[in-house]
Design goal:
2 copies of one chain form a homodimer.
Chain A: E1 10-14, H1 15-28, H2 44-52, E2 58-60, H3 63-71, E3 78-80, H4 87-94, E4 101-105, H5 108-117, E5 121-125, H6 140-149, E6 153-159, H7 170-191, E7 195-198, E8 212-213, E9 236-245, E10 250-253, E11 268-270, E12 274-278, E13 283-286, E14 295-299, H8 303-307, E15 312-316, E16 327-332
Parallel strand pairs in A: 1-15, 2-3, 3-4, 4-5, 5-6, 6-7, 7-8
Antiparallel strand pairs in A: 1-9, 9-10, 9-14, 10-13, 11-14, 12-13, 15-16
């Protein structure tokens, strides 16, 4: 099968870029010093490529991701890097063989849920500046005590500096990341444990505090991260077909808002031309010449919610001009849903 | 089952509002004068509610939608209101019993595909101002001739004034819609046939030219359409759980970019409070008080790509404060994908 035979819209990925990205990260963050975040790609088959590269601990954002990773036999050290109140599904998951799940907690309620669900290990999730989950740094000590009294082992702390991840100024990103991580160091001193978990693709080299980096997007990158000075390359493309060309100067592709996410901006064309706008099932493009029936590729600005819209990714050795490469594998996006 | 028992995030819909919206539309656009667009909701079960309300002709945007509608036994008059180059799947579809498919064409290439696939009937898709599909009005006559010479019956024309659909100024929207439809009337005079197809939720009453209105979003509405003076009400909600509350003034819900689309703006809270921002799996909200474990609802700004992210919609008789209603049905979103 060739990409020219795939019904569109569909995601295709470049294996050479995927492998280079994995290798670049593994050289700096080998083994357990990286805890890859499966939320970025939601695929156990892709996760297995990371296992081959030496990483066997993973972050998940949802219980569905934990369940799928455990079913796929790569659940020996999973971190739910997120809060949950779902005692029932956590409990069921923990009955699986060869499944070790550490859960992030940031409140009395989430500690109680973890204890009730039979969770054995937690990380205290500390707010390091992003307005999202994580306890006040001042509460980390108290919550760790509470967790221990509830019979939970506290493996350490986590804190995600997501608000700094896309800062285009490299030095400022590094400086602010260090300031943010000072908060986590203090919390860790109070809490104890072996793990300081945090960071992501954008702070992969400037975050030198975390014992494990929670990066995921680096594997296939996206337009938003590519604005930074990172060594990872964009390897994902939405393959589309030109279904209409206008008498003036634009053409229409058969993939739009339902096939890629525009939360971080419009996609960019692979090759020449510019994106005008996306509609539900279309993207209107201009400033190049296209003919009806021709293939066109769109680089998503944000891969995580884009991949979550698809059942699979077609893998090719190398994405080439003309967009007609041999398909060497089809990765199932089996961790979709919640 | 109650909505309080549903794992979150999940979509819930209000049956009373759904039925009122369907009834309001049917009173003005009865039977075949409405050709509901299934792209908005991607569910054959919801389409069957429209059949009960008297509409048995439908618009689809994708071949998957056509296939699913035919499989569900409601394929007696389907319009692919979009261009396609997929001869193989069109051909296979046409072999189904009780399946009548009319296809929009706007070029020699799409006419050739239709003829090769064994399509019998087409509409000439005319550009009426939206920079998307549709031939130049001047080419409609020529393409109709070409289609007829290729053995296709031309049922008429279609033209979608999507660029006017969200104009908040009612009089201007009406005036510009009329101007846009004058183009379609001219093309229809040249082409002939019984059908003038076009319009949508935003021009449901001011478009008095089309013989069939292609509206879909009106069934459950969304934040974007609700800015207009339409009689349809928002009936869809993303049900979430508060998983974290901050020491300052915000809380975090367990549904974000992967559960709703923000292409038309952030969602709005059902009840008090304001949305600060959405992340992949979270929405941070402020200006109200929440407790961990509490349910919260988000009104999506755009239902079409939001619904396409989910496997099902939980239907309740009425969405009430507290968000704990009896679930009376679960609608499968069975027309996802392409």
């Amino acid at each position: 099968m060739r990409t020219g035979d795939i019904k569109t819209p569909a995601l295709i990925a470049d294996l050479k870029i995927l492998e280079a990205n994995i290798s670049t990260m593994a050289s700096k963050r080998p083994g357990k010093s990286l805890r890859p975040h499966v939320k970025a790609f939601k695929s156990t088959e892709l996760a297995k490529k990371l296992v081959k590269a030496g990483h066997d601990t993973f972050c998940c954002a949802t219980i569905r991701e934990l369940e799928g990773m455990a079913e796929a036999g790569i659940g020996t050290d999973l971190l739910l890097a997120n809060e949950t109140l779902d005692t029932t599904r956590l409990n069921k998951l923990l009955l699986e063989d060869n499944c070790r799940v550490t859960v992030a907690v940031d409140s009395i309620e989430t500690i109680e849920v973890a204890a009730a669900a039979g969770v054995k290990e937690v990380l205290i999730d500390v707010n390091v500046g992003l307005q999202r989950c994580g306890c006040s740094p001042d509460d980390a000590d108290f919550l760790a005590d509470k967790a221990k009294k509830s019979g939970l082992e506290v493996r350490g702390v986590m804190g995600y500096e997501g608000h700094l991840m896309h800062d285009p100024d490299t030095r400022r990103r590094a400086k602010k990341t260090q300031e943010s991580m000072e908060i986590l160091i203090s919390a860790h001193e109070a809490v104890g444990g072996d793990i300081i978990s945090g960071g992501g693709t954008g702070t992969w080299d400037c975050n030198q505090v975390v014992t494990e980096l929670q990066a995921g997007s680096y594997v296939l990158m996206d337009g938003d991260y590519s604005k930074l000075d990172l060594p990872f390359k964009e390897g994902l493309l939405l393959l589309t077909t030109v279904i209409s060309t206008s008498m003036t100067d634009y053409a229409v592709l058969d993939g739009g808002l339902k096939a890629l996410s525009v939360d971080s901006g419009n996609p960019k064309l692979f090759g020449q031309g510019e994106v005008m706008f996306c509609s539900d099932e279309h993207t209107t493009v201009t400033n190049a010449s296209w003919s009806v029936g021709q293939r066109a590729g769109l680089r998503p600005s944000h891969i995580d919610p884009t991949i979550a819209k698809h059942e699979s990714i077609y893998l090719v050795d190398e994405i080439e001009e003309g967009l007609d490469s041999e398909v060497i594998d089809i990765l199932s996006i089996d961790l979709r849903g919640w």
